[in-house]
Amino acid sequence: MTGKWITHSQFDELFINDTPLLDLRAPSEFKKGAFSKAVNYPLMTDDERAKVGTCYKHHGQKAAIELGHALVSGETKKRRVNVWKDFFSAQPKGVIYCFRGGLRSEIVQQWLIDENIQRPRVKGGYKALRQHLIQRTEELVSQFHWIVVSGRTGCQKTEFIKEKAHSIDLEGLAHHRGSAFGRFPEPQPTQIDFENQLAIELIKLKAQGATTLFIEDEGSHIGSVSVPECLRLATQKAERYRIESTVEQRVEVIYQEYVVEAEKRYSARAQFENYLLDSLARTRKRLGDLRFRQLSDTLQQALGSNSKELHKQWIKGLLVDYYDPMYDYQMKKR
Q1: In this structure, which long-range contacts are made by residues 48-56, counting pairs with CB atoms below 8 Å and at least 24 apart in sequence?
Q2: Are 234 and 141 in contact (CB under 8 A)?
Q3: Catalytic residues
Q4: So what's the pLDDT on residue 53?
């Protein structure tokens, strides 16, 4: 992509090609939402941006621009320009954006031209890209034939859809397994990041020629993120498959997932144990105090003895007394 601008008609292409994106917004803006291929090398820090904003409010645009140039000058400017030069040296096809595609990206684009680096900036900036992805999600959701895969906890629904040529792994995008034990040591993406990545996946699948998509049966929330309403409504009316598996098979699957694999993700044994105990505590209300205490006692014994059989014992109780009744209730509603 060459020229001065990346325009709306090229936005899909940016994401299909995994184009490297240089995000010039302040760090606090970037944390609220960005794109998977974006790197944040800001023109101004949060503090500098706040000072410029205050100046603009009280003294107008000209004074604010002058202050901005004063704050990012000399050695500060040189260091930041060198970072951007290194980025484009490693990512020669990258493009630039700020929040609205205005002054910040225009300034950086010119500073790079002064260094004999010519890269386009996104017309409308982050805001335009974000609105594009929201619109494309709504458009594309209605264009696919959806097949929803349901089944009880532990029947390997996620593994099933991943084997399909075209599928959407919502739990993978949400970085959460969608259950009381679903969290990982790392935080979930922000709602905006989740929605952005979902839209990008849909755009890529459409470009690949996909017409049918497999997706796991999910509720309206996966951990802390919400499934977009348009997708939730589309999957409610979709064709459905149900996977069946024996309790013993499911216990083994959950043991591997909740115990064996989970322990590898934590750097300290205490963190892993807290993960299991805290997760089980989330089931207390639905299990009832007596059953919860029984399973909690078994879990603590399993942790103390590192007994696979004791782990399987509390897991089986969790499946039979917590997950299965909840699944049956949800199926009746549908």
Answers
A1: 48/72
A2: yes
A3: 98
A4: 92
Q: Alpha-carbon distance 205 to 89, whole Å? A: 30
Series of mean pLDDT values for 10-residue runs along the chain (334 residues) = 84 97 97 94 96 92 92 96 97 96 94 96 97 98 96 95 95 95 95 98 98 95 96 94 96 97 95 97 96 97 96 98 92 76
pLDDT at 331: 82
∠ CA 131-135-137, rounded to 5°: 120
How far is it, in rounded angstroms, from Cα 81 to Cα 87? Answer: 10
Nearest-5° angle of CA 67, CA 69, CA 75? 120
Task: Supply angle C-alpha 324, 326, 329, rounded to 5.
Answer: 110
Residue type, 254: I
Q: What is the pLDDT of residue 81?
A: 97
> What pLDDT was estimated at residue 25?
97
How many angstroms separate the CA atoms of 56 and 46, rounded? 15
Burial call 184-214: b when 16+ CB within 10 Å, e when fewer: eeeebbeebbbbbbbbbbbbebbeeebeebb
Question: Which residue from 91, 85, 96 is spatially nearest to 40, judged by alpha carbons?
Answer: 96
Tell me the residue length of the chain: 334
Q: Work out the angle at residue 15's Cα, subtended by the Cα atoms of residues 140 and 29, and round it to the nearest 5 degrees.
A: 100
Question: Side-chain half-sphere of 136: how many Cα atoms within 13 Å?
Answer: 25
Neighbouring residues of 154: CB distance < 8 A, sequence distance ≥ 6: 245, 249, 250, 251, 253, 254, 257, 319, 323
Structure tokens at 20: 């490297």
pTM of the full structure = 0.92
How many CA within 13 A on the CB side of residue 322? 25
- pLDDT at residue number 330: 84
- Mutual angle of helices 46-59 and 61-71, in 10-degree steps: 150
Contact 208, 255 (CB under 8 A): no
171 and 216 in contact (C-beta within 8 Å)?
Answer: yes
